[in-house]
Amino acid sequence: MDLVTLAAGAATLLSTWQLVPQVRRLRSVGSVAGLSVTWALVGVCLNLGWVGYRWSQEIWFGLLSPVIASLLYLALLAMIVGARKENVLVIVGSSCAFIAAVASAILGGWVAVGVLLGVGSTVHVWPSVWALFRAPAPRAVSPGTWAIGLGQAILWALYGWGSHDSIHLLYGLATAPGAGTILGRCLFLRRRRRLAAVAAETALATA
Q: What is the pTM of this model?
């Protein structure tokens, strides 16, 4: 078994598991602070697109992860929309734009759809970056999800490079910077909270 095959297998496993920490965190904290409805919506659409693209290219080992991801993104979308009623217009507008883009790509064949999926990964990640940096206390964001997201993006890029699959290479290169930014921000905020707690305890002890 070569390195490219191992990268593909590991990427598939990570992609399948990626959203589980986020769903669990959202259920436990009871808050959607720091989460983007656009991220969840585009996640549903992109993963359905990946199902079609991988089916067309006979990448059978990669079919399971986008199916599961589509369902988990749909669950996250329902939770976020349930907490933010005003996001209905965002959903309608984003859905129309995505459907128009897919329709245009389909006219160019599955290769065009694949390019759209790769480029769309950039659109997918950066609303989450924006939402995270805007939220004063983004309690709902799971660092675990973005650590897994960074790992699977790197592995898909490695698979794309090794197998000469430019679409998966583009996906990995488009996703990794955003996932790394979010993970770094989450770790920074966690460290700052810990330092603040230690400072508060020290102040109480010396008072």
A: 0.81
First-to-last alpha carbon distance for the chain, in angstroms, is 63
Residues of the chain with pLDDT under 50: none
d(CA 14, CA 176): 14
Strands (E), 67-182: none
- Give ∠ CA 12-40-121 in degrees, rounded to 5: 55
Taking a C-beta distance cutoff of 8 angstroms, is the pair 47, 69 a contact?
A: yes
Q: Residues 32, 79: contact at Cβ < 8 Å? A: yes
Nearest alpha carbon to residue 81 among 40, 29, 23, 44 = 40
What is the CB neighbour count within 10 angstroms for residue 77? 20
Supply the DSSP string of 103-149, one letter for each residue.
HHHHHT-HHHHHHHHHHHHHHHHHHHHHHHHH-SS-TT--HHHHHHH
Inter-residue contact 39 to 77 (CB < 8 Å): no
Q: Comparing C-alpha atoms, which of 134, 133, 141, 137 is closest to residue 28?
A: 141
Nearest to 182 by CA among 140, 125, 134, 136: 125
pLDDT per position as a tens digit, 99-137: 555 555 555 566 666 667 777 777 788 888 888 888 887
Instruction: Give kind and range of the element (H or E) at residue 137.
Output: none
Tokens of 182: 């979010």
